[in-house]
What we know:
- This protein has 603 residues and is an alpha+beta fold.
- The protein is built from 18 helices and 18 strands.
- It has an eight-stranded mixed beta sheet, sandwiched between helices. A five-stranded mixed beta barrel has the order 1-2-3-5-4. It has a three-stranded antiparallel beta sheet with strand order 7-9-8, with no helix packed on it.
- The protein starts with a helix and ends in a 5-residue tail after the last helix.
Amino acid sequence: VVVRRAIASSSDPQEPQQRSPQSLGMADAAPEVPVAAEEGGMSKSLQKKLAKEAEKLKRKAEQAAEKAAADAAAPHKEGKAAAKAAEDDDEELEPHQFKAMREAWIQTRTEAGQYPYPHKFHTTHSMQDFIAEFTPLADGERTTAEAALAGRVQLKRESGTKLVFFDLMADGLKVQVMADASSYKGDFAADMSCVKRGDIIGVRGFPGKSKRGELSLFPATVEMLAPCLHALPKRGLTDKETRYRQRYLDLIVNRHVRDIFLTRTRAINYLRRYLDMLSFVEVETPILNMIPGGATARPFVSYHNDLQRKLYMRIAPELYLKMLVVGGIDRVYEIGRLFRNEGIDMTHNPEFTTCEAYWAYADYFDLMKFTEELLSSMVLELTGSYKITIHPDGDKTAEGKVIDFTPPFVRLPMIKTLEQRLGVTFPKDLMQPGAMDFLTDLAKKHGIEPDQPTPAKLLDKLVGEILEPECVNPTFITDHPVIMSPLAKNHRDDPFLTERFELFVNTKELCNAYTELNDPKMQRERFTEQMAAKKLDDEAMDIDEDFCTSLEYGLPPTAGWGLGIDRLCMMLTDSMNIKEVLFFPAMKPKEDAVAADEKPAAA
Length: 603
């Protein structure tokens, strides 16, 4: 034994001790257990030394046992690695190969009588209800009540061949599915291997929490409801062309996109509730018009085969809504799409959503107060504050620009403010012959070259260059000249101006409103002047005789108001491109976009 050999060798302290292989702790030798030394045969130092040797042997034995256990688990590790490798290999396939692989699987399942597109799957809970009901469970607790959820597999991960985790997404919420072979009722390996990221599945099982406290559904069965034939991007989707053209994929991969459109819905619902609360009546008016009226804009042209005449997509619902006020609906509004055949840029889309409202026995002063109250309360309701932060450069990590919707808003009379900023005096009547020369010289002095040089266009450009950049916080630009507002009533204090305002926020127009012109004779004269301007401005209005006739029956004093919903949502969601708040924005055809990308830079 070790102790006896040590005692024997210690009789001559000058000789080195000769130890057995066991005493040296060799891995291939069985450890020996030291026995007690003969009483009085060892010094205390030797006893300590032997105790250390014994501890060392014990550690070696434990390490050998751990290694044996690890070797026994090696096949399990290999199975896990193989399963993960198979999953990774699937997603590393070329897109056409991945699709072909999935189509072949669908064909095989169908031929086996297991069609992977069932008619229905009964769920017991929505994601929201499931989370609310079972979140109070304790860590590691499971219920005995069966639950069924359905959703899209956002993430799949495996822990060996007997345990698979899914992140199941639905309604913007996530629940973990923790599939354990020991409690699964079907063919665990087959069912788990067929589920890929992006698939829509139904899961029946028992709610509970993992030992780490993660709310989970422990499935007894998993059913394929709709396989995804394309591999989802692993690291998000950032390419804007793909995001806008394939919005469904954008919504699947980028969870924040859903929040943008939920905010849009909440804003529209708030607007509708606010108007309903004030006893406004929501209506619908024609989208196909005989005459494109109600605004100065270029329309889209269609053709009606039966009537054998051109029709125009509406550019505004204004004239129809005012006819309804004539008919006795004193407070009326419409939320809907408008169509204007104009350019596409960061803030313009050919079709867009607006709200137009008309309020009998009110004027534009009432509408300014109405606008302040509506928008400030909406921003407070949706964001929790009157102040919102936007990032004009698109960099959300940079310090943003604060926009304050606290009422009242700043008011800038258009002509008076231009005179102050430019140090000039405008002619009172901007329709007189010399006014055009004045405006042209003023525009050239400030480097402004409008596409169609009319007084109205020149003034609009001057305002865009001089006043609009000041309008970061909500600002009313008021009292437009008559030549810019053919449907607005003359100002009660200055016949050359109108009672009109535009609201600008972050330098962009958000609202347009005015006290309505209700004199049929003057309205015809304004339309006639607009028709004369068509030689230089193809967006000028036509004469709408039906509308003029309706005014002859009497339009009460009325205030009209319009709000650009898309731009409002851009500000509420900190989006600098209108395409971010439209599910399906207008895009160039793919072949045109490719041709533009391939065109030489000098072209």
